[in-house]
Design brief:
Strands 2-1-3 form a 3-stranded antiparallel sheet. The longest helix is centred in the N-terminal third of the chain and has 33 residues. Helix 6 packs antiparallel against helix 7. The protein has 7 helices and 3 strands. It has 195 residues and is mainly α. It is 64% helix and 9% strand. The protein has 3 domains: 43 residues, no CATH class; 78 residues; 53 residues, no CATH class.
Length: 195
Protein backbone atom coordinates (compact mmCIF):
# COMPACT_ATOMS: atom_id res chain seq x y z
CA UNK A 1 0.00 0.00 0.00
CA UNK A 2 1.43 3.38 -0.97
CA UNK A 3 1.79 6.48 1.18
CA UNK A 4 -0.17 9.56 0.11
CA UNK A 5 1.09 12.12 2.60
CA UNK A 6 1.72 12.92 6.22
CA UNK A 7 -0.91 13.04 8.93
CA UNK A 8 0.03 15.39 11.75
CA UNK A 9 -1.17 14.46 15.19
CA UNK A 10 -0.21 17.47 17.29
CA UNK A 11 0.44 15.19 20.25
CA UNK A 12 2.59 12.60 18.47
CA UNK A 13 4.25 14.44 15.57
CA UNK A 14 3.61 12.98 12.11
CA UNK A 15 2.73 9.60 10.68
CA UNK A 16 2.46 8.33 7.08
CA UNK A 17 -1.00 8.31 5.53
CA UNK A 18 -1.77 5.18 3.44
CA UNK A 19 -3.49 5.62 0.07
CA UNK A 20 -6.88 4.18 0.97
CA UNK A 21 -9.22 7.15 1.03
CA UNK A 22 -9.43 10.91 0.68
CA UNK A 23 -10.99 11.06 4.12
CA UNK A 24 -8.40 11.90 6.78
CA UNK A 25 -10.12 9.78 9.41
CA UNK A 26 -10.22 6.80 7.07
CA UNK A 27 -6.49 7.15 6.44
CA UNK A 28 -5.33 6.58 9.99
CA UNK A 29 -8.11 6.26 12.55
CA UNK A 30 -5.61 5.18 15.18
CA UNK A 31 -4.12 8.66 15.09
CA UNK A 32 -7.34 10.43 15.97
CA UNK A 33 -7.59 9.65 19.67
CA UNK A 34 -5.08 9.92 22.43
CA UNK A 35 -4.73 7.63 25.38
CA UNK A 36 -7.66 9.27 27.20
CA UNK A 37 -10.00 8.80 24.26
CA UNK A 38 -10.15 12.51 23.41
CA UNK A 39 -9.82 13.50 19.79
CA UNK A 40 -6.48 15.11 19.01
CA UNK A 41 -6.27 17.92 16.41
CA UNK A 42 -4.79 16.70 13.11
CA UNK A 43 -3.58 18.14 9.83
CA UNK A 44 -3.16 16.10 6.64
CA UNK A 45 -0.54 17.04 4.05
CA UNK A 46 -0.81 15.72 0.49
CA UNK A 47 2.25 14.37 -1.36
CA UNK A 48 3.28 17.70 -2.91
CA UNK A 49 2.87 19.72 0.27
CA UNK A 50 4.63 16.92 2.15
CA UNK A 51 7.64 17.13 -0.16
CA UNK A 52 7.92 20.91 0.19
CA UNK A 53 7.49 20.71 3.94
CA UNK A 54 10.28 18.12 4.24
CA UNK A 55 12.51 20.20 1.95
CA UNK A 56 11.97 23.23 4.19
CA UNK A 57 12.79 21.17 7.27
CA UNK A 58 16.02 19.94 5.63
CA UNK A 59 16.88 23.52 4.61
CA UNK A 60 16.28 24.67 8.15
CA UNK A 61 18.54 21.89 9.43
CA UNK A 62 21.30 23.09 7.12
CA UNK A 63 20.88 26.68 8.30
CA UNK A 64 21.00 25.55 11.91
CA UNK A 65 24.29 23.71 11.29
CA UNK A 66 25.82 26.89 9.83
CA UNK A 67 24.65 29.02 12.74
CA UNK A 68 25.78 26.35 15.22
CA UNK A 69 29.34 26.41 13.90
CA UNK A 70 29.57 30.19 14.11
CA UNK A 71 28.21 30.12 17.67
CA UNK A 72 30.68 27.38 18.59
CA UNK A 73 33.49 29.47 17.12
CA UNK A 74 32.44 32.43 19.25
CA UNK A 75 32.30 30.17 22.30
CA UNK A 76 35.78 28.89 21.57
CA UNK A 77 37.10 32.45 21.54
CA UNK A 78 35.24 33.32 24.74
CA UNK A 79 36.40 30.21 26.63
CA UNK A 80 39.81 30.05 24.91
CA UNK A 81 39.33 26.30 24.49
CA UNK A 82 37.97 24.34 21.51
CA UNK A 83 37.49 21.28 23.72
CA UNK A 84 35.32 23.12 26.26
CA UNK A 85 33.38 24.78 23.46
CA UNK A 86 32.64 21.37 21.97
CA UNK A 87 31.68 19.99 25.40
CA UNK A 88 29.22 22.83 26.00
CA UNK A 89 27.77 22.35 22.51
CA UNK A 90 27.15 18.65 23.11
CA UNK A 91 25.81 19.30 26.61
CA UNK A 92 23.22 21.63 25.07
CA UNK A 93 22.33 18.93 22.56
CA UNK A 94 21.99 16.34 25.33
CA UNK A 95 19.63 18.57 27.32
CA UNK A 96 17.58 19.28 24.19
CA UNK A 97 17.14 15.58 23.46
CA UNK A 98 16.21 14.95 27.10
CA UNK A 99 13.40 17.50 26.76
CA UNK A 100 12.28 15.87 23.50
CA UNK A 101 12.13 12.44 25.16
CA UNK A 102 10.03 13.83 28.00
CA UNK A 103 7.66 15.71 25.68
CA UNK A 104 7.18 12.70 23.38
CA UNK A 105 6.96 10.30 26.34
CA UNK A 106 9.24 7.85 24.58
CA UNK A 107 9.76 4.61 26.54
CA UNK A 108 13.32 3.46 27.16
CA UNK A 109 14.57 0.77 24.73
CA UNK A 110 14.32 -2.74 26.06
CA UNK A 111 17.43 -4.72 26.96
CA UNK A 112 16.67 -7.05 24.05
CA UNK A 113 16.80 -4.15 21.58
CA UNK A 114 19.98 -2.79 23.13
CA UNK A 115 21.82 -6.12 22.97
CA UNK A 116 20.60 -6.76 19.40
CA UNK A 117 21.99 -3.43 18.16
CA UNK A 118 25.31 -3.80 16.25
CA UNK A 119 28.33 -2.30 17.97
CA UNK A 120 29.04 0.22 15.23
CA UNK A 121 25.58 1.77 15.62
CA UNK A 122 26.70 3.21 18.97
CA UNK A 123 29.67 5.12 17.53
CA UNK A 124 27.70 7.99 15.98
CA UNK A 125 28.20 10.18 19.05
CA UNK A 126 31.97 9.69 18.88
CA UNK A 127 32.05 10.77 15.24
CA UNK A 128 29.76 13.68 16.11
CA UNK A 129 32.21 14.82 18.77
CA UNK A 130 35.11 14.64 16.32
CA UNK A 131 33.05 16.60 13.79
CA UNK A 132 32.21 19.39 16.24
CA UNK A 133 35.83 19.65 17.42
CA UNK A 134 37.16 19.84 13.85
CA UNK A 135 34.57 22.44 12.91
CA UNK A 136 35.54 24.60 15.89
CA UNK A 137 39.26 24.27 15.08
CA UNK A 138 38.95 24.90 11.32
CA UNK A 139 36.34 27.69 11.30
CA UNK A 140 38.74 30.59 12.01
CA UNK A 141 41.17 29.50 9.29
CA UNK A 142 38.76 28.51 6.50
CA UNK A 143 35.73 30.67 7.16
CA UNK A 144 32.15 29.46 7.46
CA UNK A 145 31.31 29.23 3.72
CA UNK A 146 34.42 27.29 2.65
CA UNK A 147 34.31 25.01 5.68
CA UNK A 148 30.67 24.08 5.21
CA UNK A 149 31.14 23.62 1.45
CA UNK A 150 33.96 21.16 2.13
CA UNK A 151 31.80 19.38 4.71
CA UNK A 152 28.98 19.03 2.18
CA UNK A 153 31.41 17.72 -0.44
CA UNK A 154 32.74 15.15 2.04
CA UNK A 155 29.21 14.12 2.95
CA UNK A 156 28.31 13.67 -0.70
CA UNK A 157 31.39 11.53 -1.41
CA UNK A 158 30.86 9.39 1.69
CA UNK A 159 27.13 9.11 1.06
CA UNK A 160 27.52 7.92 -2.52
CA UNK A 161 30.26 5.45 -1.52
CA UNK A 162 28.11 4.03 1.31
CA UNK A 163 25.09 3.82 -1.00
CA UNK A 164 27.13 2.05 -3.69
CA UNK A 165 28.56 -0.60 -1.37
CA UNK A 166 25.54 -0.85 0.93
CA UNK A 167 27.54 -0.51 4.13
CA UNK A 168 26.05 -0.35 7.65
CA UNK A 169 22.88 -2.08 6.53
CA UNK A 170 21.99 0.40 3.78
CA UNK A 171 20.27 -0.97 0.67
CA UNK A 172 22.77 -0.76 -2.23
CA UNK A 173 22.31 2.05 -4.75
CA UNK A 174 24.95 1.78 -7.50
CA UNK A 175 26.78 4.92 -8.57
CA UNK A 176 25.20 6.50 -11.64
CA UNK A 177 26.42 9.10 -14.12
CA UNK A 178 24.00 11.68 -12.74
CA UNK A 179 25.36 11.17 -9.22
CA UNK A 180 28.94 11.58 -10.43
CA UNK A 181 27.95 14.79 -12.21
CA UNK A 182 26.33 15.99 -8.99
CA UNK A 183 29.54 15.36 -7.05
CA UNK A 184 31.55 17.22 -9.69
CA UNK A 185 29.19 20.21 -9.39
CA UNK A 186 29.50 20.20 -5.60
CA UNK A 187 33.32 20.12 -5.81
CA UNK A 188 33.19 22.91 -8.38
CA UNK A 189 31.06 24.92 -5.96
CA UNK A 190 33.66 24.38 -3.23
CA UNK A 191 36.40 25.74 -5.49
CA UNK A 192 34.29 28.81 -6.35
CA UNK A 193 33.31 29.52 -2.76
CA UNK A 194 36.93 29.23 -1.64
CA UNK A 195 37.84 32.31 -3.68
Amino acid sequence: MGVCGLLFDLERWWKPVPCVSRNARAHAPHCQSNETGNTAPIVVLGPHMQAWFLYLLALGAGISVSVQQVLNGNLRSALNSPAWAGFVSYLGGLLTMAVVLVVLREPAPSLKLVTATPWWAWSGGILGGVFILLMILLLPSLGAATLLALVVAGQMLAGIAMDHFGVFGLPPHPVSVSRLIGIALVIGGVLLIRD
